[in-house]
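Hi L., both proteins are below.
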Amino acid sequence: SVTSEKKIKTEGSLSRKTVPALGRLGINGEHVVTVVGGRITSSMTIEGDKTHMVLRAATPDQEHYPLKMDKFMKLYEPNGMEVDELPGATSSGPFMEMQIGQLKAKGFKLYQPRPDNRRYIYKLTPADMEILATRAFISAWGSVQPVREVDYLASPENLKEIYLMPEEVVKAERAWSNGRGSYSKLTKQDSTENFKVYSQEEMLKKYGKMIKDKGKLMVKCGTVLMRQAKLDESVVTCINGRITASVLVTDEESTVVQGGLHELYVLSKAQVEANYEKTVQDIHGTQPVDVMLKSQGFKRYTPKKKPKYFYQVQDVDMKTLPKAFHTSYGNVQMPEAGAYFVMPDTSTCQDNVTPEIYMMPEDKIFCYRPIEKAMTNRVSGTLPVMGHVSTNLYLRTGMWSRFGWAIRSNEAAEARMTGSRSTTASQPEP
């Protein structure tokens, strides 16, 4: 009822889920029974293929419960991590290795909660139990949930449903990691504007001018590897062990791109047409990496010289920036000091370019050059694609270009090995 929802909001605590969950795809006709503390708290039968995810809780009961696919996508990042690739998975002893193998065989993966995965948690009182004379209520998914005075009620931030959170679940979460819990209680400031997940429109309105005024105009150099995306393919962007994006491909026209640090990400057909030249080159070469990339369908694309503003986030900015924001491709990103805000320069583009703001890790900007230097058409300003040139050339024109001592040492070593006299090469642009 409206009264119950208002009470949960005003007297409950708004919390954000911080701990990942194990999940797998539900099976049509599968009957999922949730048992907590020896009590059946929910029971339902899955109808249809790819309609639900089945999650396993990180509690002593390790109870299973289903979530509709659209609800799951709003609460968790869409791409899970394989359980046998988790840290320590292969060195935790025979018992845990067997458990991990069984979880993987059933299709379980570890899914990270989205930054906007928040809910109200309310502790029931004796007065509430007098109202709930039946000691049970019907959940939004049609299951009868029994209630005890020691239990809690939970509701998403939009208050569209109310469901049971058993006492055992809350206790387990509070006991986890010395009382830190699976849910992080938000302060009044966090529960309002400071933790609001901004839309693209809000980001552009509030930070677009700052990025343009304080940022540096740069263009992408070199070539990029791309292949056709596959329907229902999960693409995780991971840079230096940090997941920066995750996308589930929902069409057959999108493209998978391999970035300068060998990370993968997804671009729509419109984004490829707007940002890359129409001329496509096949991969030439007989090295194992060339053969592998060609077998996967990768080809070489040349980016158009479309300038973008790059602004490096400072520590002082973190005090006023939102905790998270939605990207134009449906992901949620969290600003981080040292990373860059990127925004296309729409004033110089002849084609229709949609204004947007997104984050780019500091590690990835080495393939971009300031516009006045990139436009000089110098060989040193072009970064080749790793795997199609010698490693030495790649390093000289790319990542090592800022370390002259490394280039000079390498040249001296080559001269000694060949017995020839080395001529010092001009230094590439930083």
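That was the first. Here is the second:
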Amino acid sequence: AAKPVAASKTAARYTTQVILPALQWIKTGLKLGELQATELRAKNLAGVDVLVGKDGKGTLFCVANLCPHIGTPMSEGADVIGDVIVCPLHGSSF
């Protein structure tokens, strides 16, 4: 006879919102057509400063508004070149 399968200790189902609440879709208040290619807009979404923009091909993206290198606000002069965003202070690119 087949042996019964024990229930997994992790059988409970969790959603991304339960495990990582920061990884949720949040409305920006922007419409896709409002941003031109390489345009950037600073927003505060749920208490997090972000930079919403489009790359050179018009693909939408969202990144933290602070450069991870030294914390410079990317909204104060960052450039978008192709699919790269360039920090205004040190020229670090991401």
